[in-house]
Amino acid sequence: xxxMAESTTNKSPIxxxxxxxxxxxLKTLQSLINQTTNIHVTWISQSGRSALTQCLEDDNSxxxxxLDMGLSDIPGxxxxxRIRRNSSEPKILAITSYPIELYAADIADSGAQGIIEKNDYxxxxxxxxxxxxxxxxSPVSFRNYFETSKTAHQRLEMTPKDGFESLTYTEIQVLxxxxxGIDPKxxxxxxxxTPTTVRTHMMxxxxxxxxxxxxQALVKWTREYNGGLVCMK
Length: 233
Description:
Blueprint: E1 2-3, E2 14-19, H1 23-34, E3 39-45, H2 48-56, E4 64-68, H3 76-86, E5 91-96, H4 104-109, E6 114-117, H5 121-132, E7 138-139, H6 149-157, H7 163-166, H8 169-179, H9 184-191, H10 195-208, H11 214-225
Parallel strand pairs: 2-3, 2-4, 4-5, 5-6
Antiparallel strand pairs: 1-7
Helix pairs in contact: 2-3, 3-6, 8-10, 9-10
């Protein structure tokens, strides 16, 4: 059950952006939301990297960002944390196809204003508007975990970056490929870099994730990427 506070604010137009790994889900959500009065989807993306660029570099930030937790390039928690550290906008509503309790604590710590199951269409519009009006959306048991975007930004702005947040995009690519069983030689070919450069990236990854071995770094990365799901297996 959700804890949602009513607001008396007038219903002004809201701009939305959607980031989801699945194109069908993206198109479905875009179509449904655009049928709603005063809510308009300005852009969609399957890439966490693209979302970071649009929100932080291209001055194309929406009022509310719908952010999937299961992105293929960068974990949703890291996309959220990098946006929120830099700005109190956009407000972020996490979406997931998994039980939301699995991600709620991590995404709240990363600076989101709420989380909802992506197929919960009945509550989606209400959740978007509540978050736009500086309320939070969460399971009652996680109510105290979430903050307004301004409070979360102030907290993260004063908090040192963790190892995951310090990773470059290329280092994340290397980690994803290693996690997928691709050996360093083939990683070099796919990224058009030398094997020596791959080894350098791996050294930086181990240092940033405080790991003695690449295997230890991969375990930490897998847990971060899956929001704790690995620990349940």
